[in-house]
UniProtKB/TrEMBL annotation:
<dbReference type="Pfam" id="PF02507">
    <property type="entry name" value="PSI_PsaF"/>
</dbReference>
<comment type="similarity">
    <text>Belongs to the PsaF family.</text>
</comment>
<keyword id="KW-0602">Photosynthesis</keyword>
<keyword id="KW-0812">Transmembrane</keyword>
<protein>
    <recommendedName>
        <fullName>Photosystem I reaction center subunit III</fullName>
    </recommendedName>
</protein>
<dbReference type="GO" id="GO:0031676">
    <property type="term" value="C:plasma membrane-derived thylakoid membrane"/>
</dbReference>
<dbReference type="GO" id="GO:0016491">
    <property type="term" value="F:oxidoreductase activity"/>
</dbReference>
<dbReference type="InterPro" id="IPR003666">
    <property type="entry name" value="PSI_PsaF"/>
</dbReference>
<keyword id="KW-0732">Signal</keyword>
<keyword id="KW-0560">Oxidoreductase</keyword>
<dbReference type="GO" id="GO:0015979">
    <property type="term" value="P:photosynthesis"/>
</dbReference>
<keyword id="KW-0603">Photosystem I</keyword>
<comment type="function">
    <text>Participates in efficiency of electron transfer from plastocyanin to P700 (or cytochrome c553 in algae and cyanobacteria). This plastocyanin-docking protein contributes to the specific association of plastocyanin to PSI.</text>
</comment>
<dbReference type="InterPro" id="IPR036577">
    <property type="entry name" value="PSI_PsaF_sf"/>
</dbReference>
<feature type="transmembrane region" description="Helical">
    <location>
        <begin position="118"/>
        <end position="138"/>
    </location>
</feature>
<feature type="transmembrane region" description="Helical">
    <location>
        <begin position="82"/>
        <end position="106"/>
    </location>
</feature>
<feature type="signal peptide">
    <location>
        <begin position="1"/>
        <end position="23"/>
    </location>
</feature>
Length: 160
């Protein structure tokens, strides 16, 4: 009975307590050359190359809101514009992290690993960079071999 009451209260709060977000009624985008607010901004802008060229390009190519400012639409055909920089960033960040990880793992095998963290061993660093170039494949291989993650028994838990 308590569980049913809790479910009823939870569903009531979930569906009624927070009003749905509704977008404003007249917020639609129009071509900038048809927007009166954009044209006013264009006429009030200083006359120079740095203002004229962008305003002309915006008026031909972009859509403006009621505020007269250009807005970019999120469209599926423009997803590549976001996906390519994301993939490049993700690969580069993984390369840096994997190379550093490989260097630290290999430096722990030396007789004085603390010194290798202070004084860089250049041949080992170059070897680590080369390993880092193929980090997605190496990460997938270690993940499938269960070498990438630690077992629960290896993790320390503070006493409570």
């Amino acid at each position: 009975m308590r569980a049913l009451f809790a479910i009823v209260i939870m569903s009531f709060v979930w569906f009624n307590a927070i009003p749905p977000a509704i977008a404003a009624g007249d917020t639609h985008l129009v071509p900038c050359q048809e927007s009166t607010a954009f044209m006013e901004n264009l006429q009030n802008a200083p006359k120079s190359y740095y203002f004229d060229q962008p305003y002309q390009a915006y008026s031909k190519n972009l859509l403006c809101g009621e505020d007269g400012l250009p807005h970019l639409q999120l469209r599926l055909d423009r997803a590549v514009d976001i996906a390519i920089p994301f993939v490049i960033f993700f690969y580069f960040a993984g390369f840096v992290g994997w190379s550093g990880r490989a260097y630290l793992i290999n430096s722990k095998k030396a007789s004085k690993p603390e010194e290798m963290e202070i004084f860089i061993n250049v041949p080992l660093a170059i070897q680590s960079f080369i390993q880092g170039l193929l980090w997605p494949l190496a990460a997938f291989r270690e993940l499938t071999a269960k070498e990438l993650t630690a077992k629960d028994s290896e993790l320390s838990v503070s006493p409570r």
